[in-house]
Amino acid sequence: MNFLFYSTEISGNLISLKDQEALHCAQVLRKQIGDEIFVMDGDGNRYQCKINTISKKNVECSILEKTFKERTENIIIAIAPTKNRDRLEWMIEKLVEIGVKSIVLMSTKNTERTRTNIDRVNKKVISAVKQSLRYYVPPLTEMKYSEVLTLDADEKYIAHCYSNLPRANKGKSKAANKLILIGPEGDFTQGEIQQAFDLGFTGLDLGEYRLRTETAAIVATTLFQ
Question: Which pLDDT score is estimated for 169?
């Protein structure tokens, strides 16, 4: 497959690439009028297109063929963001490549990072979707811990490091929508974990050894895929 672009600028039989997508197409890859490219809209559709006009600010294409794929990602992962920005962005890229339905950056009592540049991180999300040839762009949101606990899912898990609290090894069904909570490097408080248990969450066991937040998130996502 040719290089995959991203755009939501779709009108009838035409798709337009804007800004960085147009610049990458015109200046970096040096595509020409008449070339065929693939474009995805992040909502399950992938388009085979032919370039009609091209510039570094706008590339207009005609749609030749449209392919739709049902969503297969079923994991909502809520993570207390790491203090180090590079580690946070690397983790999110890997989660998108592995396959998640949505990502929540969660504020807990021990969360160190209080601000995240959502626009910057969303660009990393889109780049990872294109790189992995997925059809869906998982939404990225910020929530308080109390809000995350109310999210809807068929199965709900909270990973923690307390040996005196119950933990399970794996989920019940591959098809079910799953919500997985990954705490900060100081872990959840026992009070936060009890809140989750009271609302039907199951403790999640990720192994004998303590993991960094980003490692735990990747292991948990892989475990449930």
Answer: 60
| Radius of gyration of the chain, Cα coordinates, nearest whole angstrom | 20
Q: Phi, psi at residue 148, to the nearest 5°? A: -60, -40
Nearest to 206 by CA among 173, 171, 166, 161: 161
Rounded-to-integer distance, Cα 60 and Cα 55, Å = 9
Q: Which is nearest to 61 in space by CA: 48, 76, 74?
A: 48
| Closest C-alpha among 136, 154, 131, 143 to residue 200 | 154
Residue 3 has pLDDT above 80, yes or no: no
3-state SS, residue 15: strand
Structure tokens at 137: 């762009």
- Average pLDDT rounded to a whole number, residues 202-219: 90
Give the distance, in angstroms, between the CA of residue 72 and the centroid of all CA atoms in the same chain.
13
The rounded distance, in Å, linking the Cα atoms of 149 and 180 is 10
Question: Residue 194, CB half-sphere, CA atoms under 13 Å: how many?
Answer: 4
pLDDT digits (tens, 9 = 90+) for 147-205: 999 999 999 999 988 775 656 665 556 668 999 999 998 889 999 999 999 999 999 98
Q: pTM, whole model, 2 decimals?
A: 0.89
SS3 content of the chain, % helix, strand, coil (to 5): 30, 30, 40
